[in-house]
Amino acid sequence: MSDTATQVPVAGRWRIDPGHTEVGFVGRHLVFTRVRGRFRGVEGFVDVAADPEASTVQVSIDMASVDSGDSARDEHLRSAELFDVEQFPVAIFRGKAVQWSGHNGKLELDVAYLGAVIDPWGGERAAFSARATVNREDWGISWNMPLAGGGLLVGKEIQLELELETVRQAG
Fold first, then answer.
1. Cα(16)–Cα(157) distance, rounded to whole angstroms?
2. Domains (range + CATH), the chain
């Protein structure tokens, strides 16, 4: 098979395995420092269509499950200044494939299909990796503080990083 031949798992619904999935983000702090975080509460599915460009995904994220490695920062992220988890407890991403070539596709995020295997218990599993850079202000997350020497305390651009392991559903 050539590198440009479309390669995706078999058509069907693939449920996200929360124990083997990570939805993370990277932002800039004090202009230079990269700060990472992730969400522990993730669920959803990938519907692989016979025509890969008709495939869809839905991911639900428990916003209170944010973990950046610092409890004070996590509380600030959950506050009304940033994620406002009291008003918006769940973030839902729905996407539809717009192109697919080889192992790589585009569903608003850049997606790579990493392969499929049969697990030791007979389940079919497939893995995907996805990346995107978003402007957090486009999502209403605009809190910030100017720095005396110029720049902002928190960068506007956020890199999203998803590592999804999925399990094919029967039927």
1. 27
2. 12-168 (2.40.128.110)
